[in-house]
Design brief:
Distance between the termini: 47 Å
Number of domains: 2
Largest sheet: 3 strands, antiparallel
Structural class: alpha+beta
Mean pLDDT: 89
Radius of gyration: 22 Å
Order of helices and strands: HEEHEHHEEH
Strand content: 5-15%
Helix content: 40-55%
Strand order of the largest sheet: 3-5-4
Number of strands: 5
Number of helices: 5
Oligomer: single chain
């Protein structure tokens, strides 16, 4: 997997261009009724054919860029090392290996090396965030019931 190092936030000028392009592309996508679209590059007059799904992805990229968010694109089926998986989750490698060995996150073993699907990492992270959110709500409700928290 090739990564862009370092990942950086879009500049103000990039955000502005992305915002304008996002609005235009969004409006155009609503009018398209075909699965493939021809696009012409002004500078070279080259025409390329893009699937509608690629244009929708480009719309999401432009939206995130306009909001100043850094962008990273990873194929869903990508497998990563345990070290990279730990970096993605923001935990130690030994902690990640324990999650793998306990069956919390699925993995494949290639020889002696473990590989984790990026999609499985994202699912685990999403579930953990939901779980944490519910814990916070439960704590706030308990505090409200006992009078420790003023809403």
């Amino acid at each position: 997997m090739r990564t862009l190092d370092p990942i950086r936030r879009p500049s103000k000028s990039e955000q502005k261009i992305a915002s304008e392009s996002y609005e235009t592309l969004s409006a155009v996508l609503d009018q398209l009724d075909t699965e493939n679209t021809d696009i012409e590059i002004d500078e070279t007059h080259d025409k390329i054919k893009l699937p509608l799904s690629a244009l929708r992805l480009l719309t999401e990229i432009l939206k995130s860029m306009s909001e100043g968010k850094p962008i990273s694109i990873v194929p869903v089926a990508t497998e990563v090392t345990t070290q990279k998986a730990a970096e993605i989750l923001g935990c130690s490698r030994p902690h990640l290996v324990k999650l793998l060995e306990d069956g919390v996150i699925a993995f494949n073993k290639i020889g002696k090396h473990r590989r984790v699907k990026f999609e499985d990492l994202m699912n685990y992270q999403r579930n953990m965030k939901e779980h944490q959110k519910q814990h916070i709500i439960d704590i706030m409700q308990t505090d409200e019931e006992t009078g420790l928290y003023d809403s």
